[in-house]
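Working notes for the structural subgroup meeting. M.R. asked for a predicted model of this chain before we commit to crystallization trials. I am recording the input and output together here so anyone reviewing the notebook later can reproduce the run.

Input as submitted:
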Amino acid sequence: MLYYLYILNGPLKYTKISLIPNEYSLSTYNKGNKIHDDDASQLYIPCDDETLIKKINIKLKDTKEDQNTLVIEESMVANEIGSEINIDLDKPIYLDNTPMFLISEKANLVKEQLVFQKRVIHVNSRKKIAITLIVAIFFLLLSIPIFFFNKKEVNNVIPEPTLSVENYHHFLGLKNHYCFYDEATPEWVKNNNSQYSYVDIKKINLIFNREKKIINNISIKDGSNPIIAFIYHNNHEKDKINTFIQQQFSTFCQPTIKAISIPSLIEQVNAFSFANETSYQIKEENNGITFIFDGVLNRESKIRFEQFIKKQTFIFGRKFIFYHENIGNPDLINKATLQEDNGYIFIDSQHRYFPKG
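Returned structure, recorded in token form:
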């Protein structure tokens, strides 16, 4: 048996939460509240009004014969603390006359079924007249500046849309922080620095597509933090890229970063026996690395090298190492005098030749 809690108000309006029969502690909060350590039975719902901040105990039974109930444990309204209320399924639960959430056994309620108005507080006729006069005077005063207000400015006002978490790619970061990376995410989420953070994946790609292209792979899966892998030549370059990536994410939404160094790859290749029997060079192109062997690798050498490629592919998240055999290389003509102390011949900015490893 499953229950479904539908949020009717606040930033997460229309969000659905699945609940099994159990006892839950539900807290409504806003920017001024701190969210405590998460617990499977602890629910947090953001709200816009401080008067709606409450802590509620909810008991959902596993049989229809037993009555589901809720008890308000903490509230700014003293006389409602400790009051027990029966939960009627498919009917809104009001907090301070505001429809806050609804509990149902139905998993497919549409938005049109989740629209409820605030409860009206009945007042006597004298109070009604006084309130009507106050409202009339207020709107009269308000209409004066509006009359002179530029219509263009009105058209430029972007209403804050309702956010349904399920509609956008995101993952849950530290302390239940919502981390969005969907291009369609509303502007008010992208500019919000409280419970929501927006990560612009395009900005991360910028550093990988500059003049000195960096071999990289960005793995994005809805519901989990992004994995960013890249290849670097030296520690200075590694630190620079690491810092840039971390700056694009908030403290609550940091990605997993995997950095692989070219010197380390070369060292591992040189450990193979065939690297001492044939010369090779490296090309960095097409977001990958190609090893070009001047000699022909035997079957055993190819198997060992392909196993090495598979291992690096698993670490990096995609295949980025390739190879082929090339007997006689015109690029090496007149390059013999350029051999350096580190054991390779520098051909150009993206090519190095390793004579026999």
